[in-house]
Design brief:
By secondary structure, the chain is of the alpha+beta class. Among the domains are: 82 residues, Alpha-Beta Plaits, CATH 3.30.70.1400; 127 residues, Elongation Factor Tu (Ef-tu), domain 3. Helix content is 20%, strand content 29%. The chain contains nine helices and 21 strands. It has a six-stranded mixed β-sheet with strand order 12-13-14-11-3-15. The protein has a six-stranded antiparallel β-barrel with strand order 16-19-18-17-20-21. Strand 8 and strand 9 form a beta hairpin. The longest helix has 11 residues. It is globular and about 65 Å long.
């Protein structure tokens, strides 16, 4: 009875809007568009639902979707020594990152833990943008800078991203910024004029299909950019939606704070080992990570397939995983994939169970038991060399 009451209260709870949380330049537009639920992310409001997740998944898979992701709070590292500082806080070798190029970045703590996993853009010389997952990594960068003798500034610029995702996204953006949109390679960015609105567009996104992030450079023009994107997509059915959990898990994309935390290193997460790049220069946490590289890890975050009927309930807490009646780990995500037509997610397991094919007993928060099988990440591996609708 207690669990039923807690579930009822959770479903009827309302998020209170107040001035102590920041609103993105697109927040009021999301309200007008019919957003029904929000999350708190980076001290901001993140749209959570407009429609049924499977409906939004179909829209993303077939047309063009528009997401307010202003919560990807942009941290700017700039100045004569910006290149040195940005390279110092990551295990990636950024001496090889060209101007206008981007990287999936891991910000590293002294013990090798993951502070954040932002998309990093290098829009111009001596300027870098970290577009953060949910954490105060900007303050971490500020702290590292304060303890250095570098000529560098860490700031929060007037830069606000929206994602335009889906197989027709390039065609829709072509109507807004011209055919130059097709020149963007995966994880590169450039400046564009969007009907008089200055933007930087990167070919990045939280999906398993081609898409873009449009960075507004004037927060006062949030409504203008939002409406301009919607108007360009009339023939493609552009619709505001929330980020798609099913799509990002299919693609092996992680959610910082739930899938991995500060206590986890890149060697603990399947697929992130490759980002601990061997390099001559020092960086924060290098000694710790090289020691882990030599010694190995005792646990791993891997994929899992859950057998049985389609999962409809959403996870509000981690689900325990058992082997032979003994708890050995926990699930961080579990979702029905309409495209794969099966339940998929991520699970933390001992290293001996990290290979695909190991069977586990999964206990949901309601006490139900589901059989799970460990799997490789990603679940899909799409080719993303060129946006859909390319002219060449």
């Amino acid at each position: 009875m207690v669990n039923e009451r807690e579930e009822m209260l959770a479903k009827s709870a309302t998020l209170y809007f107040g001035p102590w949380y920041r609103q993105s330049p697109f927040f009021k537009a999301t309200l007008r568009a019919g957003c029904t639920a929000y999350d708190i992310y980076n001290h901001m409001y993140l749209p959570g639902y407009y429609d049924d997740p499977e409906t939004e998944y179909k829209l993303l898979n077939e047309g063009v979707t528009l997401w307010d992701v202003g919560v990807e709070r942009t941290v700017q590292v700039s100045g004569p020594d910006a290149d040195v500082l940005i390279d110092r806080i990551t295990c990636r070798d950024l001496t090889k990152c060209a101007v206008k190029q981007g990287k999936y970045m891991l910000v590293i703590a002294p013990d090798g833990g993951i502070v954040n996993d932002p998309v990093l853009l290098h829009p111009e010389p001596t300027v870098w943008w970290m577009q953060l997952a949910d954490s105060d990594a900007g303050l971490y960068a500020l702290g590292v800078a304060a303890q250095s003798d570098l000529d560098v500034e860490v700031s929060f610029p007037d830069v606000h991203p929206v994602q335009v995702q889906g197989p027709q996204s390039a065609k829709a953006l072509e109507k807004l910024v011209g055919a130059g949109i097709y020149d963007l390679k995966y994880y590169w960015c450039d400046r564009f004029d969007a009907r008089g609105i200055p933007v930087v567009i990167s070919r990045t996104g939280w999906t398993a299909i081609p898409g873009f992030e449009v960075n507004l450079l004037d927060g006062a023009r949030g409504d203008d950019l939002w409406n301009a994107i919607l108007e360009t997509g009339d023939e493609f059915g552009v619709r505001p939606t929330a980020p798609s959990e099913a799509r990002r898990i299919e693609a092996g994309i992680f959610n910082y704070g739930s899938d991995m935390r500060l206590t986890d290193t890149p060697f603990h997460v399947m697929g992130l080992e490759r980002l601990v790049e061997e390099q001559p220069q020092d960086y924060v946490g290098k000694d710790a990570l090289e020691k882990i590289r030599r010694q190995g890890v005792d646990r791993k975050l891997v994929g899992i397939e859950l057998l049985g009927a389609e999962l409809r309930a959403e996870m509000s807490e981690y689900w325990n995983a058992y082997e032979a009646g003994q708890k050995i780990g926990y699930l961080t995500d579990a979702v029905w994939s309409p495209g794969l037509e099966r339940n998929i997610g991520y699970v933390w397991v001992p290293i001996r169970l990290a290979e695909p094919g190991n069977r586990l007993d999964v206990e949901t928060e309601d006490g139900d038991h589901i059989e799970g099988i460990t799997a490789a990440i990603p679940f899909v591996d799409p080719r993303k060399e060129r946006p859909a609708g390319s002219l060449t």
